[in-house]
Amino acid sequence: MAKKRAPSVYQRNALAPSLIAAAILFLAPVLLGGPWFLLVLFIVAILALIVAWFAFQAKQWWWIPAFAAVAIIWNPAYPLPFSGQIWSAAQPAAAVLFLIAGALIKVRRP
């Protein structure tokens, strides 16, 4: 007979958007300079704001400035003129930020 598993005490609302953003950011250096990169900017900026909102709900305020910065840097409406190796390295760095936040932002289940 299988053992019944106890339900988790916490839920990680930011995990799914963080995983999606990280996957896109790990692929972003390949798309850099192409027509699809605008889509990367939109997706990353929106998901950064979503993760910041989940951090706010979880009362983990220290994540909000980091994801506000990501939303500003990857802003598609007024793109900042980044290019070169630093911009290519910023993509996986932001992906790691999303992965860490997705794992650490959690709220207690009611």
UniProtKB/TrEMBL annotation:
InterPro entries: DUF6804
Record keywords, A-Z: Membrane, Transferase, Transmembrane, Transmembrane helix
Any GO MF annotation of the entry: transferase activity
Residue ranges of the TM segments: 12-30, 36-56, 61-80, 86-105
Top-level taxonomic group: Bacteria
Name of the featured protein: Glucan phosphoethanolaminetransferase (Alkaline phosphatase superfamily)
